[in-house]
């Protein structure tokens, strides 16, 4: 079988990846020393304004000496090392504890900013899709004046510009094999990174025993490394792909800066659509075509399906497409521009290869009515411009929602962060309108992207910022600090509430001084894994201990409290322990939400601390009746200085019905 060996994991955990026949699989699975065998699943790669929007300006107080010792490991599509975002001006050599290496391939050079590089796919750690460069610079890029063809201009910077970056290229063309992901975790843990940022995930949540990020993240957690992962961009499937409690799962939301593209019809009506493009039609109106002048039947032509548009018939015209993906066909056919129907209920601006704008169904139908009722319909498309989003932050339409279908009593996602229309570094080898767009030959150093992949490095940077002030804090303490100090979003504006945004929107500045933290130990994770029947995950500890204490997942010492119930009436309790990381002598009083649908009781109602590091336990009891499919509530501990808030969520199975 040696000739079929693909990868060997020896540095941080034991295992290997290999091509096996069915007989070899069966033989290995029966071996007493083999804990688990699972498929080599494919994962997918999932800022001038965002940091200021969060109240996190460039001149915020920093502990620069410690920040520059923090190493962020980025598992992604590689990096463009020559980008100005990764210059090392003014930075000292890497920390002495760093055990990594610069093995980025031919003509790939590291520096005192980009201190390490490894690759497990293609022949270089160089980024040829732009994704890895964008995420790495969002987390720790140096401040650079930048824009996308004059759009979204300003200073693009990461949250911790002095932190070091180590890149682990496990992805290519948007695909990341489990074997490569585990190699990246194995190396990153050994190399000595402090935080791992993984803007990758599968299309669907998978069993913990076959989830490469969950398994690699577990071993990272045992080594004291916080792993931050994007929640996924599959909102319509109602299942976040990041489900393990030892991983920090991040949803995406907008900021107060938006990008729009206006379309003006010749009758004088103007619509604000969503896209990002710099093309100027100089106010000239062009004929609109929709479903005609094509090579296909009418419905395929309306969708602008592959091969449907006849270049000679759409030249000098604006094409309407009732499918957003039709933009590639419009670009290929050489039309002047496109009016598109967005696939998201709340459209997002993506970079497009030609003058184009996308609309929700209502506005698209209005434009369609104009087209149908006008003898010679015409329109013009304006260059993109900035607007102020007065309702920010709102969770993006694409952001994957909960509940957690693998561990139903652990709330996921954990938190939300800016992930909509963010400017950051890019690879000049990649098309700015998408890694798979062969008809956009532009080359840029900075690009605007959206996705939970973009939100993830914001949380990574926030965690690194906290660590720079609290070097002795555990990964779970940092996670707790960010969750309990998050802005609470309005559940009346999002019917899935915490299943959309977790504990709320990150507030890095407040999280440095949270007052109390919920700490979750390795033993807690081991107990959970054992009780759920995932002992084979524990390759470092062997099988679970006999007589392992039984703890329900809802009673894990997690910063949020969640339980799934059968039926509508319920009575549930949660037990939690908090650690004082604030003043030595402090008294916290509890406050809870109230509603005719439920009552919350907390015992005791007052927690008194006499020492730093002192722990206190309490119980939360919630009784009530679910009218629709969930109860969205919270408890809040307050000492007059700190506010420590935890979501309390009770939900029924009906939340998984398609109508929700």
Please give a quick description of this structure:
By secondary structure, the protein is of the alpha/beta class. The relative contact order is 0.12.
Walkthrough of the structure:
With 660 residues, this protein is of the alpha/beta class. The protein folds into 3 domains: 42-255 and 394-511, 3-Layer(aba) Sandwich (Rossmann fold); 257-388, Glucose Oxidase, domain 1, CATH 3.50.30; 516-520 and 557-656, Immunoglobulin-like, CATH 2.60.40. The chain contains 15 helices and 34 strands. Strands 15, 16, 17, 18, 19, 20, 21 and 22 form an 8-stranded mixed sheet that branches. A 7-stranded parallel sheet has the order 5-8-4-11-13-14-23, with helices on both faces. Strands 27-34-33-29-31 form a 5-stranded mixed sheet, with no helix packed on it. It is globular. The relative contact order is 0.12. The mean pLDDT is 89.
Set down the secondary structure blueprint.
Blueprint: E1 5-9, E2 15-18, H1 22-29, E3 42-45, H2 50-53, H3 64-67, E4 71-76, E5 114-119, H4 131-140, E6 144-148, E7 151-156, E8 164-169, E9 171-172, E10 175-177, H5 178-191, E11 195-198, E12 200-201, H6 212-222, E13 226-230, E14 247-253, E15 257-265, E16 270-273, E17 286-289, H7 298-302, H8 311-314, E18 318-321, H9 327-333, E19 337-341, E20 355-359, H10 361-373, E21 378-381, E22 385-388, E23 415-418, E24 422-425, E25 446-449, H11 452-469, H12 475-484, H13 498-501, H14 508-511, E26 516-517, H15 522-531, E27 561-565, E28 569-580, E29 586-592, E30 598-603, E31 606-609, E32 615-625, E33 630-638, E34 643-652
Parallel strand pairs: 4-8, 4-11, 5-8, 11-13, 13-14, 14-23, 17-18, 18-19, 19-20, 27-34
Antiparallel strand pairs: 1-2, 3-10, 3-12, 6-7, 9-10, 15-16, 15-21, 15-22, 17-21, 24-25, 26-28, 28-32, 29-31, 29-33, 30-32, 33-34
Helix pairs in contact: 4-11, 5-6
Family: Belongs to the peptidase S8 family.
Keywords: Hydrolase, Protease, Serine protease, Signal
GO molecular function: serine-type endopeptidase activity
